[in-house]
Amino acid sequence: MKTAVDPCGIWGQPIKSEIPFWGEIANECQLAEQLSSINLPTPIGFWRRPVPGTKSYNAQNDTIERSWFIVDAEDQIVGRIASDIAMVLMGKHRPTYTPNVDTGEFVIVTNCEKVKFTGNKLNQKTYTWYTGYTGLRSESAGARLQRKPEQIMRDAVRRMLPKNKLGRQMLNKLKIYQGAEHPHQAQNPQPLTGGRHLK
Known about the structure:
By secondary structure, this protein is α/β, with parallel strands linked by helices.
């Protein structure tokens, strides 16, 4: 028999009693019987097993290293490629993702005028907007693809980002261009792979 000591004073003060040492008792029921025999109250949460301590990681803006990626949108479906781009812009591909911090990368999209729509969306899907004057403006997806193809990809990605100031900051890292040329060769962008829908 060894003396069991409560050095932390769980019961209000350090206690010594002639009961088996904690490490020698394999069954928690035996320990409960011993405590009840000496009329000691059982502290709340005493039977919870110890959990190894872990520290949560919170990313900081001044410690984030951002990379540049490039995506060729030729023959890609608009919504599916936009979902992969939005994940990278938010930084959800990182193990250090923090919801309230912009941990995403820069993404360059080329050949945005060659994207695809499934079904008959090219003719049936409409984009609407207000100008401040009387009346609602609208146009089909096919008309916008001819007039302003960059806006189609930007709107698709924007609607998958947070609707707040942080989401607008993430959207600023998206660079969209017609054709295969872009002015960001100095950043040495790497092809974006590993997404659910990227070819």
